[in-house]
Amino acid sequence: MSKLNRDILFMLFEELQDDSKSLFSCLIVNKLWCETAIPILWKNPWRYNINYHSKNSLFNIITSSFSDDIKNFLSGKGIKLSSVSFQPLLFDYLSFCRSMNVNVINDVISIGSCLAYNQFLLQQEFYSLFMKKFPELKYLDIRSIEHQIFYFPRAVACLDSLYELTCETSTEPSYFYGLARICDKIENLIIYNASPKVNRGIIKLIEVQRRLKYFEWEDDCEEFEEYFDIVDIYEETFLALAKKADTLIHFVTNFQEEYEFTFPSRILSEFHNLKTLKLNFHPIFDYSYDEQLKMSDYPNLETFQLDDITLISTVACMIKNSGGRLRKILVNNYDVVEDNFNEESLVLINAVREHCPLIECLSLAFPSSDEHFVDLEKLLLHCQKLRVLAISISNVNEISREQMPTDRGKLLRALTRSSSTNLREIRFFEHFKFSSESLEEFLESWKERPALSIFTCDLGYKKEEFVEYAEIINRYKNDGVIKDFKFVVKELMHF
Question: SUPFAM superfamilies this protein is in (predicted)?
Protein backbone atom coordinates (compact mmCIF):
# COMPACT_ATOMS: atom_id res chain seq x y z
CA MET A 1 0.00 0.00 0.00
CA SER A 2 2.84 2.42 0.81
CA LYS A 3 4.05 2.14 -2.83
CA LEU A 4 0.81 3.33 -4.41
CA ASN A 5 1.36 6.42 -6.54
CA ARG A 6 0.05 9.83 -5.54
CA ASP A 7 -2.94 9.85 -7.94
CA ILE A 8 -4.28 6.53 -6.66
CA LEU A 9 -3.74 7.58 -3.06
CA PHE A 10 -5.61 10.82 -3.69
CA MET A 11 -8.62 8.95 -5.10
CA LEU A 12 -8.60 6.56 -2.14
CA PHE A 13 -8.34 9.38 0.40
CA GLU A 14 -11.14 11.29 -1.31
CA GLU A 15 -13.38 8.33 -0.48
CA LEU A 16 -12.34 8.67 3.17
CA GLN A 17 -13.04 12.39 3.51
CA ASP A 18 -16.09 11.74 5.72
CA ASP A 19 -14.10 9.36 7.93
CA SER A 20 -11.83 11.66 9.92
CA LYS A 21 -10.34 8.87 12.06
CA SER A 22 -9.10 6.91 9.05
CA LEU A 23 -7.93 10.01 7.23
CA PHE A 24 -5.98 11.28 10.24
CA SER A 25 -4.33 7.86 10.49
CA CYS A 26 -3.05 8.22 6.93
CA LEU A 27 -0.95 11.20 7.99
CA ILE A 28 1.49 9.05 9.96
CA VAL A 29 2.19 6.31 7.35
CA ASN A 30 4.91 8.13 5.41
CA LYS A 31 5.69 11.46 3.77
CA LEU A 32 3.82 10.70 0.52
CA TRP A 33 0.68 9.66 2.34
CA CYS A 34 0.87 12.75 4.52
CA GLU A 35 1.36 15.09 1.57
CA THR A 36 -1.61 13.50 -0.21
CA ALA A 37 -3.97 13.51 2.78
CA ILE A 38 -3.35 17.06 4.00
CA PRO A 39 -5.08 18.86 1.08
CA ILE A 40 -8.16 16.65 1.55
CA LEU A 41 -8.31 17.23 5.31
CA TRP A 42 -7.87 20.96 4.93
CA LYS A 43 -10.37 21.38 2.11
CA ASN A 44 -13.02 21.58 4.84
CA PRO A 45 -11.26 21.33 8.23
CA TRP A 46 -14.38 22.46 10.14
CA ARG A 47 -16.53 19.48 9.19
CA TYR A 48 -15.12 16.83 11.51
CA ASN A 49 -16.73 15.75 14.77
CA ILE A 50 -14.02 17.00 17.09
CA ASN A 51 -13.91 19.50 19.94
CA TYR A 52 -12.66 22.61 18.20
CA HIS A 53 -12.86 24.65 21.40
CA SER A 54 -9.84 22.76 22.74
CA LYS A 55 -7.86 22.49 19.49
CA ASN A 56 -4.96 24.80 20.27
CA SER A 57 -2.95 23.41 17.36
CA LEU A 58 -5.59 24.61 14.86
CA PHE A 59 -5.65 28.04 16.50
CA ASN A 60 -1.85 28.20 16.43
CA ILE A 61 -1.59 27.16 12.78
CA ILE A 62 -4.00 29.91 11.72
CA THR A 63 -2.52 32.67 13.89
CA SER A 64 1.03 31.76 12.81
CA SER A 65 0.09 33.11 9.38
CA PHE A 66 -0.55 36.60 10.80
CA SER A 67 2.00 39.29 10.10
CA ASP A 68 4.17 40.48 12.99
CA ASP A 69 2.25 43.77 13.11
CA ILE A 70 -1.07 41.97 13.58
CA LYS A 71 0.41 39.62 16.18
CA ASN A 72 1.75 42.58 18.15
CA PHE A 73 -1.58 44.39 17.89
CA LEU A 74 -3.57 41.38 19.12
CA SER A 75 -1.10 40.62 21.92
CA GLY A 76 -1.38 44.22 23.04
CA LYS A 77 -5.13 43.70 23.46
CA GLY A 78 -4.48 40.81 25.84
CA ILE A 79 -5.21 38.09 23.27
CA LYS A 80 -3.21 34.93 23.92
CA LEU A 81 -1.15 33.89 20.93
CA SER A 82 1.27 30.99 20.98
CA SER A 83 4.54 31.76 22.75
CA VAL A 84 6.20 28.91 20.86
CA SER A 85 8.53 30.01 18.08
CA PHE A 86 7.39 27.98 15.10
CA GLN A 87 9.70 26.69 12.43
CA PRO A 88 8.31 27.31 8.95
CA LEU A 89 5.25 25.12 8.50
CA LEU A 90 5.60 22.14 6.17
CA PHE A 91 2.37 23.10 4.37
CA ASP A 92 0.52 26.27 3.54
CA TYR A 93 -2.58 24.73 5.13
CA LEU A 94 -5.00 27.58 4.45
CA SER A 95 -4.25 27.49 0.73
CA PHE A 96 -6.04 24.13 0.58
CA CYS A 97 -9.18 25.40 2.31
CA ARG A 98 -12.42 25.88 0.38
CA SER A 99 -14.82 26.22 3.31
CA MET A 100 -15.79 28.50 6.19
CA ASN A 101 -18.06 27.64 9.12
CA VAL A 102 -18.59 30.66 11.36
CA ASN A 103 -19.81 28.72 14.40
CA VAL A 104 -16.82 26.37 14.37
CA ILE A 105 -14.38 29.21 13.71
CA ASN A 106 -15.84 31.05 16.70
CA ASP A 107 -15.07 28.00 18.84
CA VAL A 108 -11.48 28.08 17.65
CA ILE A 109 -11.24 31.83 18.25
CA SER A 110 -12.44 31.46 21.85
CA ILE A 111 -9.09 29.81 22.61
CA GLY A 112 -7.43 33.24 22.23
CA SER A 113 -9.73 35.18 24.56
CA CYS A 114 -13.00 34.92 26.46
CA LEU A 115 -13.78 38.63 26.02
CA ALA A 116 -16.42 39.46 23.39
CA TYR A 117 -14.51 42.46 22.01
CA ASN A 118 -11.28 40.50 21.65
CA GLN A 119 -13.13 37.69 19.91
CA PHE A 120 -14.61 40.27 17.56
CA LEU A 121 -11.09 41.48 16.71
CA LEU A 122 -9.89 37.93 16.14
CA GLN A 123 -12.84 37.21 13.88
CA GLN A 124 -11.93 40.22 11.79
CA GLU A 125 -8.33 39.11 11.42
CA PHE A 126 -9.29 35.48 10.75
CA TYR A 127 -11.69 36.43 7.95
CA SER A 128 -9.26 38.90 6.44
CA LEU A 129 -6.58 36.21 6.42
CA PHE A 130 -8.96 33.63 4.93
CA MET A 131 -9.95 35.94 2.08
CA LYS A 132 -6.27 36.38 1.24
CA LYS A 133 -5.25 32.74 1.62
CA PHE A 134 -8.21 30.78 0.27
CA PRO A 135 -8.06 30.43 -3.52
CA GLU A 136 -11.87 30.26 -3.51
CA LEU A 137 -14.77 29.55 -1.18
CA LYS A 138 -17.08 26.70 -2.13
CA TYR A 139 -18.87 26.08 1.19
CA LEU A 140 -19.94 28.83 3.57
CA ASP A 141 -21.94 28.60 6.80
CA ILE A 142 -22.66 32.12 8.10
CA ARG A 143 -24.85 31.33 11.09
CA SER A 144 -23.80 33.65 13.97
CA ILE A 145 -21.71 35.83 11.67
CA GLU A 146 -20.77 39.32 12.90
CA HIS A 147 -18.68 40.64 9.99
CA GLN A 148 -19.70 41.52 6.47
CA ILE A 149 -17.00 39.40 4.89
CA PHE A 150 -17.72 40.61 1.35
CA TYR A 151 -15.97 43.91 2.16
CA PHE A 152 -12.61 42.29 2.93
CA PRO A 153 -9.80 42.48 0.33
CA ARG A 154 -10.07 39.71 -2.30
CA ALA A 155 -13.58 38.82 -1.08
CA VAL A 156 -15.10 39.19 -4.53
CA ALA A 157 -12.61 36.77 -6.11
CA CYS A 158 -12.95 34.36 -3.19
CA LEU A 159 -16.76 34.34 -3.04
CA ASP A 160 -17.52 34.48 -6.74
CA SER A 161 -17.63 30.69 -7.11
CA LEU A 162 -19.59 29.95 -3.90
CA TYR A 163 -21.35 26.60 -4.32
CA GLU A 164 -23.17 26.06 -0.99
CA LEU A 165 -24.48 28.51 1.59
CA THR A 166 -25.93 27.68 5.00
CA CYS A 167 -27.62 30.58 6.80
CA GLU A 168 -30.45 31.57 9.13
CA THR A 169 -33.28 34.06 8.74
CA SER A 170 -32.31 35.98 11.88
CA THR A 171 -29.16 37.31 10.15
CA GLU A 172 -29.47 40.93 9.09
CA PRO A 173 -30.73 41.34 5.48
CA SER A 174 -27.70 43.51 4.64
CA TYR A 175 -25.44 40.42 4.81
CA PHE A 176 -27.49 38.75 2.10
CA TYR A 177 -27.66 41.89 -0.04
CA GLY A 178 -23.86 41.96 0.06
CA LEU A 179 -23.60 38.30 -0.93
CA ALA A 180 -26.21 38.77 -3.68
CA ARG A 181 -23.93 41.38 -5.25
CA ILE A 182 -21.20 38.74 -5.68
CA CYS A 183 -22.66 35.22 -5.47
CA ASP A 184 -24.99 34.21 -8.28
CA LYS A 185 -23.73 30.65 -8.79
CA ILE A 186 -24.95 29.08 -5.53
CA GLU A 187 -26.27 25.57 -6.17
CA ASN A 188 -27.08 24.49 -2.59
CA LEU A 189 -28.96 26.81 -0.22
CA ILE A 190 -29.79 25.65 3.33
CA ILE A 191 -31.89 28.04 5.44
CA TYR A 192 -32.65 27.74 9.17
CA ASN A 193 -35.75 29.78 9.96
CA ALA A 194 -35.09 31.45 13.30
CA SER A 195 -36.93 34.78 12.96
CA PRO A 196 -40.58 35.89 12.91
CA LYS A 197 -39.86 38.37 10.13
CA VAL A 198 -39.54 38.01 6.39
CA ASN A 199 -35.87 38.36 5.46
CA ARG A 200 -35.88 40.20 2.15
CA GLY A 201 -32.12 39.87 1.92
CA ILE A 202 -32.59 36.10 1.55
CA ILE A 203 -35.31 36.70 -1.04
CA LYS A 204 -32.92 38.91 -3.03
CA LEU A 205 -30.18 36.27 -2.78
CA ILE A 206 -32.59 33.65 -4.15
CA GLU A 207 -33.66 35.93 -6.99
CA VAL A 208 -30.14 36.46 -8.35
CA GLN A 209 -29.19 32.77 -8.45
CA ARG A 210 -28.74 31.32 -11.93
CA ARG A 211 -28.35 27.59 -11.16
CA LEU A 212 -29.91 26.86 -7.78
CA LYS A 213 -30.34 23.08 -7.54
CA TYR A 214 -30.80 22.22 -3.85
CA PHE A 215 -33.02 24.13 -1.41
CA GLU A 216 -33.58 23.17 2.21
CA TRP A 217 -35.73 25.00 4.79
CA GLU A 218 -35.56 24.03 8.46
CA ASP A 219 -37.85 25.72 11.01
CA ASP A 220 -36.04 26.52 14.25
CA CYS A 221 -38.37 29.02 15.81
CA GLU A 222 -39.47 28.03 19.31
CA GLU A 223 -38.76 31.53 20.55
CA PHE A 224 -41.45 33.42 18.63
CA GLU A 225 -44.60 31.35 18.49
CA GLU A 226 -46.63 34.41 19.57
CA TYR A 227 -45.91 36.01 16.17
CA PHE A 228 -47.22 33.21 14.01
CA ASP A 229 -50.78 34.48 13.81
CA ILE A 230 -49.80 37.91 12.55
CA VAL A 231 -46.65 37.49 10.49
CA ASP A 232 -46.33 35.81 7.11
CA ILE A 233 -42.80 34.39 7.00
CA TYR A 234 -43.20 31.89 4.18
CA GLU A 235 -45.18 33.30 1.27
CA GLU A 236 -42.67 35.74 -0.23
CA THR A 237 -39.66 33.48 0.22
CA PHE A 238 -41.21 30.44 -1.43
CA LEU A 239 -42.77 32.42 -4.27
CA ALA A 240 -39.27 33.72 -5.05
CA LEU A 241 -38.03 30.11 -5.00
CA ALA A 242 -40.76 29.05 -7.44
CA LYS A 243 -39.10 31.23 -10.09
CA LYS A 244 -36.10 28.88 -9.91
CA ALA A 245 -38.17 25.82 -10.84
CA ASP A 246 -36.25 25.24 -14.06
CA THR A 247 -32.98 24.55 -12.22
CA LEU A 248 -34.23 23.25 -8.85
CA ILE A 249 -33.92 19.46 -8.50
CA HIS A 250 -33.90 18.96 -4.70
CA PHE A 251 -36.55 20.51 -2.41
CA VAL A 252 -36.41 19.71 1.31
CA THR A 253 -38.55 21.29 4.05
CA ASN A 254 -39.09 20.70 7.75
CA PHE A 255 -41.85 22.95 9.03
CA GLN A 256 -42.75 23.07 12.69
CA GLU A 257 -46.02 21.23 12.83
CA GLU A 258 -47.29 22.95 15.97
CA TYR A 259 -48.26 26.05 14.06
CA GLU A 260 -50.41 26.96 11.13
CA PHE A 261 -48.28 28.40 8.34
CA THR A 262 -48.65 30.09 5.00
CA PHE A 263 -46.53 27.92 2.74
CA PRO A 264 -48.00 28.52 -0.74
CA SER A 265 -48.90 24.98 -1.74
CA ARG A 266 -49.65 26.06 -5.30
CA ILE A 267 -45.93 26.23 -6.06
CA LEU A 268 -45.55 22.44 -5.66
CA SER A 269 -46.87 21.81 -9.16
CA GLU A 270 -44.24 24.18 -10.61
CA PHE A 271 -41.24 22.14 -9.47
CA HIS A 272 -41.36 19.87 -12.52
CA ASN A 273 -37.64 18.97 -12.56
CA LEU A 274 -37.38 17.61 -9.01
CA LYS A 275 -35.37 14.49 -8.26
CA THR A 276 -35.85 14.86 -4.49
CA LEU A 277 -38.97 16.05 -2.66
CA LYS A 278 -39.07 15.94 1.14
CA LEU A 279 -41.95 17.63 2.95
CA ASN A 280 -42.55 17.68 6.67
CA PHE A 281 -45.63 19.60 7.68
CA HIS A 282 -48.95 19.00 9.39
CA PRO A 283 -51.70 20.98 7.63
CA ILE A 284 -54.50 21.53 10.12
CA PHE A 285 -57.92 20.97 8.54
CA ASP A 286 -56.42 21.74 5.15
CA TYR A 287 -56.18 19.28 2.26
CA SER A 288 -54.70 21.74 -0.25
CA TYR A 289 -51.23 20.17 0.05
CA ASP A 290 -52.56 16.75 -0.84
CA GLU A 291 -54.52 18.15 -3.75
CA GLN A 292 -51.52 20.02 -5.14
CA LEU A 293 -49.30 16.94 -4.87
CA LYS A 294 -51.92 14.81 -6.62
CA MET A 295 -52.01 17.22 -9.54
CA SER A 296 -48.23 17.56 -9.85
CA ASP A 297 -46.09 15.70 -12.37
CA TYR A 298 -42.55 14.84 -11.36
CA PRO A 299 -41.13 12.81 -14.27
CA ASN A 300 -37.56 12.85 -12.87
CA LEU A 301 -38.43 12.13 -9.23
CA GLU A 302 -36.17 9.58 -7.52
CA THR A 303 -36.85 10.27 -3.82
CA PHE A 304 -39.84 11.57 -1.97
CA GLN A 305 -40.35 11.69 1.77
CA LEU A 306 -43.59 12.89 3.29
CA ASP A 307 -44.46 13.37 6.95
CA ASP A 308 -48.04 13.70 8.17
CA ILE A 309 -49.64 13.66 4.73
CA THR A 310 -53.36 13.31 5.26
CA LEU A 311 -54.35 10.92 2.46
CA ILE A 312 -52.78 7.64 1.36
CA SER A 313 -54.21 8.32 -2.11
CA THR A 314 -51.81 11.28 -2.38
CA VAL A 315 -48.82 8.94 -2.40
CA ALA A 316 -50.41 6.63 -4.96
CA CYS A 317 -51.14 9.57 -7.28
CA MET A 318 -47.58 10.87 -7.00
CA ILE A 319 -46.25 7.44 -7.92
CA LYS A 320 -48.52 7.17 -10.96
CA ASN A 321 -47.51 10.66 -12.10
CA SER A 322 -43.79 9.94 -11.76
CA GLY A 323 -41.55 8.79 -14.59
CA GLY A 324 -40.70 5.33 -13.25
CA ARG A 325 -37.40 6.46 -11.68
CA LEU A 326 -38.43 6.37 -8.02
CA ARG A 327 -35.88 4.75 -5.72
CA LYS A 328 -37.10 5.95 -2.30
CA ILE A 329 -40.68 6.36 -1.09
CA LEU A 330 -40.68 7.25 2.59
CA VAL A 331 -43.91 8.21 4.35
CA ASN A 332 -43.58 8.36 8.09
CA ASN A 333 -47.21 8.85 9.10
CA TYR A 334 -49.92 7.44 6.87
CA ASP A 335 -53.48 8.39 7.85
CA VAL A 336 -54.93 4.93 8.51
CA VAL A 337 -58.33 6.12 9.74
CA GLU A 338 -59.60 7.54 6.47
CA ASP A 339 -62.83 5.92 5.32
CA ASN A 340 -61.44 4.05 2.32
CA PHE A 341 -58.05 3.10 3.79
CA ASN A 342 -58.42 -0.59 2.88
CA GLU A 343 -59.06 0.13 -0.80
CA GLU A 344 -56.55 2.96 -1.12
CA SER A 345 -53.77 0.90 0.48
CA LEU A 346 -54.28 -1.76 -2.20
CA VAL A 347 -54.06 0.96 -4.86
CA LEU A 348 -50.80 2.15 -3.29
CA ILE A 349 -49.20 -1.32 -3.22
CA ASN A 350 -50.13 -1.93 -6.86
CA ALA A 351 -48.95 1.54 -7.90
CA VAL A 352 -45.50 0.77 -6.47
CA ARG A 353 -45.43 -2.61 -8.23
CA GLU A 354 -46.44 -1.17 -11.60
CA HIS A 355 -44.51 2.11 -11.62
CA CYS A 356 -41.41 1.63 -9.42
CA PRO A 357 -39.14 -1.11 -10.83
CA LEU A 358 -36.07 0.67 -9.37
CA ILE A 359 -37.41 1.12 -5.84
CA GLU A 360 -34.80 0.58 -3.11
CA CYS A 361 -36.39 2.06 0.05
CA LEU A 362 -40.12 1.86 0.68
CA SER A 363 -42.59 2.47 3.51
CA LEU A 364 -46.10 0.98 3.36
CA ALA A 365 -49.22 0.91 5.53
CA PHE A 366 -52.02 -1.60 4.98
CA PRO A 367 -54.47 -3.79 6.93
CA SER A 368 -53.75 -7.46 7.60
CA SER A 369 -56.05 -9.00 4.99
CA ASP A 370 -55.17 -11.94 2.76
CA GLU A 371 -55.71 -9.73 -0.29
CA HIS A 372 -53.12 -7.25 0.93
CA PHE A 373 -50.57 -9.98 1.68
CA VAL A 374 -51.04 -11.43 -1.82
CA ASP A 375 -50.48 -8.04 -3.44
CA LEU A 376 -47.48 -7.38 -1.19
CA GLU A 377 -45.88 -10.60 -2.45
CA LYS A 378 -46.46 -9.51 -6.05
CA LEU A 379 -44.73 -6.22 -5.25
CA LEU A 380 -41.76 -7.99 -3.64
CA LEU A 381 -41.36 -10.34 -6.59
CA HIS A 382 -41.44 -7.46 -9.06
CA CYS A 383 -39.27 -4.96 -7.14
CA GLN A 384 -36.04 -6.92 -6.88
CA LYS A 385 -33.85 -3.91 -5.99
CA LEU A 386 -35.66 -3.29 -2.70
CA ARG A 387 -33.14 -2.93 0.17
CA VAL A 388 -35.13 -1.23 2.96
CA LEU A 389 -38.77 -1.96 3.75
CA ALA A 390 -40.80 -0.20 6.47
CA ILE A 391 -44.20 -1.71 7.20
CA SER A 392 -47.15 -0.55 9.27
CA ILE A 393 -50.03 -3.02 9.47
CA SER A 394 -52.96 -1.02 10.73
CA ASN A 395 -56.57 -2.01 11.08
CA VAL A 396 -59.26 0.62 11.42
CA ASN A 397 -61.29 -1.96 13.32
CA GLU A 398 -58.66 -3.44 15.58
CA ILE A 399 -58.29 -7.20 15.44
CA SER A 400 -58.10 -9.15 18.67
CA ARG A 401 -54.74 -9.50 20.39
CA GLU A 402 -55.09 -13.27 19.99
CA GLN A 403 -55.39 -12.92 16.21
CA MET A 404 -52.48 -10.47 15.85
CA PRO A 405 -49.56 -12.97 16.06
CA THR A 406 -51.24 -15.13 13.39
CA ASP A 407 -51.56 -12.21 10.99
CA ARG A 408 -48.00 -11.08 11.71
CA GLY A 409 -46.86 -14.61 10.96
CA LYS A 410 -48.50 -14.35 7.53
CA LEU A 411 -46.43 -11.25 6.89
CA LEU A 412 -43.18 -13.03 7.78
CA ARG A 413 -44.02 -15.91 5.46
CA ALA A 414 -44.80 -13.45 2.66
CA LEU A 415 -41.41 -11.82 3.17
CA THR A 416 -39.68 -15.20 3.15
CA ARG A 417 -41.34 -16.40 -0.04
CA SER A 418 -41.10 -13.28 -2.16
CA SER A 419 -38.44 -10.77 -1.11
CA SER A 420 -35.17 -10.68 -3.05
CA THR A 421 -31.72 -11.26 -1.63
CA ASN A 422 -31.14 -7.50 -1.87
CA LEU A 423 -33.40 -6.85 1.13
CA ARG A 424 -31.14 -5.78 4.00
CA GLU A 425 -33.38 -3.94 6.46
CA ILE A 426 -36.95 -4.24 7.71
CA ARG A 427 -38.66 -1.70 9.97
CA PHE A 428 -41.84 -2.74 11.76
CA PHE A 429 -44.08 0.11 12.91
CA GLU A 430 -47.12 -0.11 15.17
CA HIS A 431 -47.90 -3.40 16.95
CA PHE A 432 -45.63 -6.12 15.60
CA LYS A 433 -45.68 -8.86 18.17
CA PHE A 434 -44.71 -12.11 16.46
CA SER A 435 -45.04 -15.50 18.03
CA SER A 436 -41.65 -16.93 18.93
CA GLU A 437 -42.34 -19.84 16.54
CA SER A 438 -43.05 -17.51 13.58
CA LEU A 439 -40.00 -15.41 14.31
CA GLU A 440 -37.69 -18.42 14.54
CA GLU A 441 -39.16 -19.94 11.38
CA PHE A 442 -38.58 -16.64 9.56
CA LEU A 443 -34.97 -16.29 10.72
CA GLU A 444 -34.21 -19.92 9.92
CA SER A 445 -35.42 -19.35 6.35
CA TRP A 446 -33.14 -16.30 6.09
CA LYS A 447 -29.93 -18.25 6.68
CA GLU A 448 -28.83 -18.35 3.05
CA ARG A 449 -29.34 -14.61 2.59
CA PRO A 450 -27.23 -11.59 3.54
CA ALA A 451 -27.53 -10.52 7.19
CA LEU A 452 -30.71 -8.61 8.04
CA SER A 453 -31.23 -5.54 10.25
CA ILE A 454 -34.58 -5.40 12.05
CA PHE A 455 -36.05 -2.36 13.81
CA THR A 456 -39.30 -2.26 15.78
CA CYS A 457 -41.15 0.25 17.93
CA ASP A 458 -43.39 -2.40 19.57
CA LEU A 459 -43.00 -1.99 23.31
CA GLY A 460 -43.28 -5.74 23.74
CA TYR A 461 -39.69 -6.08 22.61
CA LYS A 462 -38.47 -3.70 25.29
CA LYS A 463 -40.32 -4.91 28.36
CA GLU A 464 -39.94 -8.10 30.37
CA GLU A 465 -41.74 -10.19 27.77
CA PHE A 466 -38.82 -9.57 25.41
CA VAL A 467 -36.86 -12.18 27.38
CA GLU A 468 -38.53 -15.03 25.50
CA TYR A 469 -37.23 -13.59 22.20
CA ALA A 470 -33.74 -12.68 23.40
CA GLU A 471 -32.39 -16.19 23.10
CA ILE A 472 -33.70 -16.56 19.54
CA ILE A 473 -32.35 -13.18 18.43
CA ASN A 474 -28.94 -13.65 20.02
CA ARG A 475 -28.57 -17.10 18.50
CA TYR A 476 -29.28 -15.82 15.00
CA LYS A 477 -26.99 -12.86 15.57
CA ASN A 478 -24.20 -15.28 16.38
CA ASP A 479 -25.05 -17.26 13.25
CA GLY A 480 -24.76 -14.10 11.13
CA VAL A 481 -28.43 -14.10 10.12
CA ILE A 482 -29.26 -10.92 12.05
CA LYS A 483 -26.95 -7.96 11.67
CA ASP A 484 -28.87 -5.79 14.12
CA PHE A 485 -32.10 -5.97 16.13
CA LYS A 486 -33.24 -2.79 17.87
CA PHE A 487 -36.22 -1.35 19.66
CA VAL A 488 -36.59 2.27 18.53
CA VAL A 489 -39.03 4.87 19.84
CA LYS A 490 -41.54 5.53 17.09
CA GLU A 491 -40.67 9.23 16.86
CA LEU A 492 -37.08 8.21 16.03
CA MET A 493 -38.03 5.55 13.49
CA HIS A 494 -38.00 8.10 10.68
CA PHE A 495 -35.69 7.52 7.77
Answer: RNI-like
